[in-house]
């Protein structure tokens, strides 16, 4: 069965209801306080090469601690929670505190989503193209692709890619994203929402 056929079977099901719920939660974060937006930024720093479930667990444990915990305490907390990338990411979180007060302005500006992503990749420690796209989706901006290894594997499995590049530069990411945007257009959903449908199709759940 083709990818779009499988995805279309999810319309009107529990999956779509879960996706709609998650989308409303993302919009709520994006319209919330600068502090909540920063917590989501920290979640996206932590989930690179890590599981969403693990990142959610850590986020729920630390919460506003991302904003004020002393570096050594934050490091110890991440280690105690079993987070194996505690170094250097606790340092990233502490350094990213300098962005408090500017994040809401970035995500609500009139700039294109691609420009917002470019700024985030430049300014946020621990962000590449995927992480910045993930963060923007999680604050209610849905028109970018989150090309993690699971999504790329699905794209290859269904014939959209011949091979998954071993190294993904910004230029390669944009080229891969163009393919994903075409899939999203055919499915009739923005790429950041298509991502959730694919995750449900593969994992049976909608995380973030």
Question: What would your notes on this structure say?
Answer:
- The protein has 13 helices and no strands.
- The protein is an all-alpha fold.
- It is globular, with a radius of gyration of 17 Å.
- 67% of the residues lie in helices and 0% in strands.
- It has two domains: 3-25 and 145-203, Endonuclease Iii, domain 2 (Orthogonal Bundle), CATH 1.10.1670.10; 33-138, Endonuclease III, domain 1, CATH 1.10.340.30.
In the predicted model, the low-confidence regions spanning at least 5 consecutive residues are none
Strand content: under 5%
> Quaternary state, please?
single chain
Structural class: mainly alpha
Question: Total number of helical segments?
Answer: 13
Distance between the termini: 26 Å
CATH topology of the largest domain: Endonuclease III, domain 1
In short:
This protein has two domains: 3-25 and 145-203, Endonuclease Iii, domain 2 (Orthogonal Bundle), CATH 1.10.1670.10; 33-138, Hypothetical protein, domain 2 (Endonuclease III, domain 1). The chain is 67% helix and 0% strand. The chain contains 13 helices and no strands.
């Amino acid at each position: 069965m083709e990818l779009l056929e499988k995805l279309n079977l999810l319309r009107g099901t529990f999956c779509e209801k879960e996706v709609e719920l998650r989308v409303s939660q993302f919009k709520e974060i994006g319209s919330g306080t600068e502090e909540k937006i920063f917590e989501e930024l920290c979640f996206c720093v932590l989930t690179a090469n890590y599981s969403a479930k693990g990142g959610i667990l850590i986020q729920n444990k630390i919460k506003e601690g991302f904003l004020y915990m002393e570096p050594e305490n934050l490091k110890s907390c991440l280690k105690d929670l079993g987070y194996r990338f505690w170094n250097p990411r606790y340092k990233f979180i502490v350094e990213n505190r300098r962005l408090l007060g500017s994040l809401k302005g970035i995500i609500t500006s009139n700039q294109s989503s691609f420009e917002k992503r470019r700024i985030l990749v430049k300014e946020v420690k621990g962000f590449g193209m995927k992480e910045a796209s993930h963060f923007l989706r999680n604050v209610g901006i849905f028109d970018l692709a989150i090309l993690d290894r699971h999504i790329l594997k699905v794209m290859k499995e269904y014939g959209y890619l011949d091979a998954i590049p071993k190294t993904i530069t910004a230029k390669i990411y944009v080229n891969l994203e163009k393919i994903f945007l075409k899939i999203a257009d055919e499915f009739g959903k923005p790429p950041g929402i298509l991502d959730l449908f694919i995750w449900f199709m593969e994992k049976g759940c909608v995380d973030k």
